[in-house]
Design a protein that fits this description.
About 30% of the residues lie in helices and about 30% in strands. With about 260 residues, the chain is an alpha/beta fold. It is built from six helices and ten strands; from the N terminus they run βαβββαβββαβαβαβα. The longest helix is centred in the last third of the chain and has 25 residues.
């Protein structure tokens, strides 16, 4: 009897070859790059459907899945549901981010310990009072990795918004209007020592905790909301390079410890 292939991600349990770690970039276009950075000679393509592209890599003698989630909580929740049902137990979300604290230089690494739940998807799994927190061991490996590869990093809280524009208090929009509930929130998050904005970690960290599994979150800063909104091509390349170095080393730390 043929194995079930999950509808959205188009993967079956057998295709993962025993992988229990998954790296989750948002952008399908980053999946191949990340997989080949982890495993330059042996990474293989698995599937592509909608926003979900996946490759399988080998590191420290174990398989690691790299699977994109698309942008935002709803599509991330689908990937988490289907990957968890195939046996993935450890999730590392990687991405790019905009920082909101003036002392954070580009392209620093941001390691998230917990997220402000400005999403909607996570509320379908747990009430808003339920915290969106990262797994300690997976987070510790990210910190060790950042130190080891010699990149500047910051550890702390992320604001995770379902929207790129109003939820992150951006006024450069079609209407130029931000609803009252989001006006002045950038200053508030700064005052509360939130480090950055991104769009998936609240969903990731809430759902994986609800599932009884583990997740970590790391992003590379490509813009500072203090200075401007548009990343330079050079900054983007450096940020992605730093992120690849950190996630590969963190995976190696975890895989060799198990």
């Amino acid at each position: 009897m043929a194995e079930e292939v999950k509808y959205h991600i188009r993967l079956s349990k057998g295709m993962l070859q025993g992988a229990v770690y998954a790296v989750l970039p948002g952008d399908p276009g980053r999946v191949e790059k990340v997989a080949k950075y982890i495993d330059p000679n042996g990474a293989i393509f698995l599937a592509a459907n909608r926003e979900y592209t996946s490759w399988l890599a080998n590191l420290s003698g174990k398989k690691v899945l790299v699977c994109s989630t698309g942008i935002g909580g709803p599509s991330t929740s689908i990937a988490l549901e289907e990957l968890a049902s195939l046996g993935i137990k450890n999730f590392y979300r990687i991405g790019t981010t905009g920082v909101i604290q003036p002392d954070i230089k580009l392209p620093s690494i941001i390691i998230t310990t917990g997220s402000v739940r400005l999403d909607g998807a996570s509320t379908h799994y747990a009430p808003i009072e339920y915290p969106a927190v990262a797994d300690f061991e997976l987070t510790k490996a990210l910190v060790e990795a950042a130190k080891d590869v010699g990149v500047e990093y910051h550890v702390g809280i992320t604001a995770s918004s379902d929207t790129f524009y109003p939820g992150q208090e951006r006024y450069d929009t079609f209407t130029g209007y931000v609803p009252l509930r989001f006006q002045n929130t950038l200053k508030e998050w700064q005052k509360l020592h939130v480090l950055n904005y991104e769009m998936e970690s609240a969903t990731l960290l809430t759902l994986v905790s609800v599932f009884g599994l583990r997740a970590g979150m790391v992003a590379s800063a490509i813009v500072s909301r203090i200075a401007g909104e548009t990343p330079s091509d050079e900054e983007l390349v450096r940020a992605e390079d730093n992120l690849s170095k950190v996630i590969r080393k963190a995976l190696q730390i975890r895989l060799e410890a198990e």
